[in-house]
Design a protein that fits this description.
66% of the residues lie in helices and 0% in strands. The chain has 8 helices and no strands. It is elongated, with a radius of gyration of 20 Å. 13% of the residues are buried. It is an all-alpha fold.
């Protein structure tokens, strides 16, 4: 007798794509995070009904979900506040830089922030 398809697994690709975009990853960024190629992430999202069992824990960790949520065994949690996770990942990377490089990045950011503040001030005065 043929195996019955597991309905929970059928939506794996769609669920993976939703979780990936909600986490602020591109396919290439997620692939880099879990040690595969962007092409494989695309394949998992569009072509396969069988999730990559060797990568499931890594994908779940990168997306900040459980493997049960990733597989659809458990419903996905809704985050209370949407955050720019892409920006947060970059901040985490900046924190790992040597102190001199961190200061340079902070100075660059301060320049953009000050420029924006001055533009806002000028537009209010006009």
């Amino acid at each position: 007798m043929p195996k019955k398809p597991n309905k929970r697994m059928n939506g794996f690709g769609k669920r993976l794509a939703e979780l990936r975009t909600a986490a602020g990853y591109t396919q290439v960024e997620l692939a880099s995070e879990v040690g595969t190629s962007g092409r494989m992430i695309s394949y998992y999202e569009r072509q396969t009904k069988h999730p990559p069992t060797n990568l499931l824990p890594k994908i779940a960790k990168a997306l900040c979900v459980t493997t049960d949520e990733l597989l659809g065994v458990k419903s996905m949690r809704r985050k209370t506040k949407a955050r720019n996770l892409s920006l947060q990942r970059r901040i985490d990377q900046i924190e790992k830089l040597p102190p001199a490089e961190k200061r340079q990045v902070i100075q660059l950011l301060d320049t953009f922030i000050e420029r924006r503040r001055l533009k806002s001030k000028l537009s209010k005065e006009s």
